[in-house]
């Protein structure tokens, strides 16, 4: 079960990296003076990235918990 814990940790780390990338992208986007419609469209794309990264992170954490419970 050690392997499941390590794989879950790696997957969770990838999800965390995706969340950090989306935060940096939002901060860069806010610095630009875009019209409201363009800002909403760009934020909509970033929300999809953020939700996907959160999902990957949760899957990794679930793998870690299952590995701990079965180990």
How would you characterize the overall build of this protein?
By secondary structure, the chain is mainly alpha-helical. The protein has one domain (2-70). The protein has two helices and no strands. Helix 1 (2-31) runs antiparallel to helix 2 (36-70). The N and C termini lie close together (5 Å).
Helix content: over 70%
User: Counting H and I runs of at least 4 residues, what is the number of helices?
Assistant: 2
The overall average pLDDT, rounded, is 94
Low-confidence stretches: none
Helix and strand content put the structural class at mainly alpha
Query: What's the gyration radius in Å?
Result: 16 Å
Strand proportion, as a percent range, falls in under 5%
Topology pattern, helix = H, strand = E: HH
Sheet with most strands: none
The structural domain count equals 1
Principal-axis shape: rod-shaped
What is the strand tally?
0
Report how far the terminal alpha carbons are from each other. Answer: 5 Å
Descriptive key words:
transmembrane; transmembrane helix; membrane; mainly alpha; 71 residues
Give the secondary structure arrangement, pairings included.
Layout: H1 2-31, H2 36-70
What's this, in brief?
This protein is mostly helical.
